[in-house]
Amino acid sequence: MAIKVGNIPAFDQHPSIGIGLSVPFQSTATSGSDSVFNINYTTAEQIKYNIINYFLTSKGERVFNPTLGSNIRGYVFEPNDPSTLEILKKNIENDITLIFPMVKLQEIKTFSDPEYYNITVQIFYSVFSSLNEFVEFNMPL
């Protein structure tokens, strides 16, 4: 008789096999582990770090893949007003739906702090219809 596994990705069925690296890179050699970097063992965790990497990479930064990355660093010299934040949210939404089809976007929040010339972006999403994830990063203006 077949056993229904549910909505578990193929990579997550072997919990002792790493599928990617977390960001920022930190050496784990001092903790007694054999690995040099922190390793992700679940697909949902790796997707989170893929999203972070994608938005921290500018278009044209990768030599052999110049279309990889986002243009959110282009907002550095834009006015810090609500219309710019709406355009930024729309660009992030378009990037996520195009690049990460396995991610179901729930909400994007942007917070502007004119006193410190900073914008905080929070992305709320789910992966595989059961996991609620959250990514936050700051953009200095």
CATH class of the domain at 44-140: Alpha Beta
Q: Which value, in Å, is the CA radius of gyration? A: 18 Å
Question: What percent strand?
Answer: 15-25%
- Biggest sheet strand order reads 3-4-5
CATH architecture of the domain at 44-140: Roll
3D shape? globular
How many extended strands? Answer: 5
Low-confidence runs? none
**How many helices does DSSP assign?**
2
| Major β-sheet profile | 3 strands, antiparallel
Secondary-structure class? alpha+beta
What series of H and E elements makes up the topology?
A: EEHHEEE
Distance between the termini: 59 Å
CATH domain topology of the domain at 44-140: Nuclear Transport Factor 2, Chain: A
Question: Can you give a write-up of this model?
Answer:
By secondary structure, the protein is an alpha+beta fold. The protein has a domain at 44-140: Nuclear Transport Factor 2, Chain: A. It contains two helices and five strands, in the order ββααβββ.
Short structural description:
The chain is an alpha+beta fold and 141 residues long.
Tags for this model:
141 residues, alpha+beta, Nuclear Transport Factor 2, Chain: A, 3-stranded antiparallel sheet, 2 helices, 5 strands, 25% strand
How would the blueprint of this fold be written?
Layout: E1 20-21, E2 39-40, H1 43-56, H2 82-99, E3 103-113, E4 118-127, E5 131-140
Antiparallel strand pairs: 1-2, 3-4, 4-5
